[in-house]
Amino acid sequence: MARAAVPGRLGARLRWLEARLTGRHDESDTARTLVFDVPGWPGHLPGQHLDVRLTAADGYSTQRSYSIASAPDGERVELTVERIDDGEVSPYLVDVLEVGDVIELRGPVGGWFVWRPDEQKEPVLLVAGGSGIVPLMAMIRTRRALSDRVPFRLVYSLRSPRSQWFVPDLRTQDPGLDKTFLYSRSAPEGWPRPPGRVTANDLSAGGWPPDFEPVCYVCGSTGFVETAAGLLVALGHDPRRIRTERFGPGG
Amino acid sequence: MTTEPGFLDGNAAAGDLESLFGADMTMASGQCQGCGLRMRLAEAHAYLGGPGTVLRCPGCEDVLLRMVRSPSHLWLDASGLDYLRLPAAAG
């Protein structure tokens, strides 16, 4: 009998691993997906993140935390990184790192903002603001890879159509995944909803009724997360079923 | 134009916390000594921009935990927490 793959490190000590860039592609004008081969990667759950460490020739080193964008897939790990212009790490990852280059990764970490398909059978609402789509994309990809039937709804708030990430992936029709796109600054021509920030109506129409008892994952900037999580509570969702992950301009 | 609050979730400090404690601390619960709120560390407010990592209570914003790394030592001050409760490791 084939052994079931158990993601996670199962108590193994967190340590830095070498990661070689094997591919990259643009997601938008400012963001790029980086594909790494990480020998010894223990697997991960969708929603988990990892730390990236860069060390300069003089020994100076700095690290940042990034959400994993890919579904568990052996020793392959994808990150999608937005270039923060005055940042220290992201311009290097987005603009300088080339295929074949090696950096250090440590992970996966975090057990809170995680979807566990083997345990969770309740409906899922994913609410993304901008770059907050990354860990939610990992959940969608994992659901797809497993042909999981748990019903998902995604509400993705973004500035304009040009700022959307994962366009081909989100164009794919996944049975049981409903998608709502909200544009805050400029919408495509003829879009029924005028541009604007996320509202209670958006989360009501694009989400689940509270009595379905969905788990709600909300990820984006701190301001977006505060707003969206507050609206979900106001709509009647139990705060214990709302999980948040705030993304900051860490650079 | 609004100014973004300068904090993230405790999740963002998960790697450093785990490297210190040897277990995932984001699922650990703690109680704030200031206001008595109980939360998971994942839900604490994390301030990472300074020389160290600071976790604050999401209820009263009191400091729960401070962690500073020097070349030779790691300093931990968790005096803002009444207790930490960790899930027992499986197996």
Describe the structure.
The complex is a heterodimer of chains A (about 250) and B (about 90). Chain A contains 5 helices and 11 strands, in the order βββββαββαβαβαβαβ. Mean pLDDT of chain A is about 90; it is low at about 1-5. Chain A has helices spanning about 90-95, 135-145, 165-170, 200-205, 220-235, and strands spanning about 15-25, 30-35, 50-55, 60-65, 75-80, 100-110, 125-130, 150-160, 175-185, 215-220, 240-245. A 6-stranded antiparallel β-sheet of chain A has the order 4-3-6-1-2-5. Chain A has a 5-stranded parallel β-sheet with strand order 9-8-7-10-11, with helices on both faces. Chain A folds into 2 domains: about 15-110, Translation factors (Elongation Factor Tu (Ef-tu), domain 3), CATH 2.40.30.10; about 125-245, Nucleotide-binding domain of ferredoxin-NADP reductase (FNR) module (Rossmann fold). Chain A has about 250 residues and is α/β, with parallel strands linked by helices. In chain A, about 20% of the residues lie in helices and about 30% in strands. Chain B has about 90 residues and is mainly beta. Helix content of chain B is about 10%, strand content about 35%. Chain B is built from 1 helix and 8 strands; from the N terminus they run E-H-E-E-E-E-E-E-E. Chain B has one helix at about 15-20; strands at about 10, 30, 40, 45, 50-55, 65-70, 75, 80-85. Chain B has a 5-stranded antiparallel β-sheet with strand order 1-4-5-6-7, with no helix packed on it. Chain B has a 3-stranded antiparallel β-sheet with strand order 3-2-8, with no helix packed on it. In chain B, strand 2 (about 30) and strand 3 (about 40) form a beta hairpin. The longest helix of chain B has 8 residues, at about 15-20. Chain B starts with 7 loop residues before the first strand and ends in a 6-residue tail after the last strand. The interface of A and B includes residues 10, 49, 246 and 250 of A.
